[in-house]
Design brief:
Blueprint (H helix, E strand, L loop, with lengths): L26 H17 L14 E6 L5 H12 L3 E6 L11 H10 L4 E6 L4 H8 L3 E7 L5 H15 L6 E5 L6 H12 L3 E5 L15 E3 L2 H4 L5 E4 L15 H8 L3 H5 L6 E3 L12 H4 L6 H20 L11 E2 L4 E2 L1
Parallel strand pairs: 1-2, 1-3, 3-4, 5-6, 5-8, 6-7, 8-9
Antiparallel strand pairs: 10-11
Helix pairs in contact: 1-5, 1-11, 2-11, 5-6, 5-11
Length: 334
Amino acid sequence: MPHLSSDATPTPGWNHRHLLDLERLSGDEIRLLLDTAARFKEATDGCRRKLAVLTGRTIVNLFFENSTRTKTSFALAARRLGADVVDFSASGSSLSKGESFIDTAKNLEAMGVDAVVVRHATPGTPHLLAQHLDVGVINAGDGPHEHPTQGLLDIFSIRERRGDLAGVTVGLVGDIAHSRTARSNLWGLLKLGAKVILCGPPTLVSSRWREVGVEVSHDLDAIVPRCDVLNLLRIQFERQNTRPFPSVREYAHLYAMTRERLKRARRDLLILAPGPINRGVEVTADVADCPQSLILDQVTNGLAVRMGVLWLICGPREDASIETAATPAEGRFV
């Protein structure tokens, strides 16, 4: 079993109090995050067992946008590591009485929490929070800006199958303009040496992305045979002021990954989708459930990534005792 140090600084090479984005991390720091996630996935038998290394820590889920996978994943990841979890509900809080966002967060901090996981519709909100709190802040999605743990779990899922990402061609297909997932994937993939192709309608994929070293295409059929991985992104109608294409039917005709397109792809093509998926829009049902699909693997790997992130951000208590041998029957370290 992998050794997880009980030092106050759990892993050498990680010097950040917060995880706010992937854009400002180095390739080595991203590899460290991925390696830590891999260690936790192995140590917890595929994220199914508990490893009580954060006993006594308290994590707050501070979500101002709806979430199924991310919020539940962070809560489960924290509990798998023995931490307590508080799920904050904005609708029933003092925000409705006029309390500011920062004051709400500082009051939660005063209750002795160790990290805040925040999702907000306004880009930069986690960065603002990090300036006012002395505890760790983890960005769970800030508007269309970034979603670092989603980017990490997507890259983790590719790396599990492909190994080193250097030279791997990844197509990000869909609503690039409004996708925080696309941005986090883009920065992470580039720093690990992958080739990135952004594909979608001209109204959703700006040619200016070429300035950061990626390829831009508006023709899915042209790029499918060249890709090792396709990550199919949801159309985010909730962030759009105008309809970027004539109809959903037309979008699906041009950009949905279908069985016919899969036949023209490489035999070992990997299919990812961050969810929620809209079957028949960005991907047909038969492709979503095909052997090349990693969609459910991504969900499992999200737990591993978030366990790794919580470990690096929070660290164990100084008196934590962690042995390198597990008790398989009980699924815990003693």
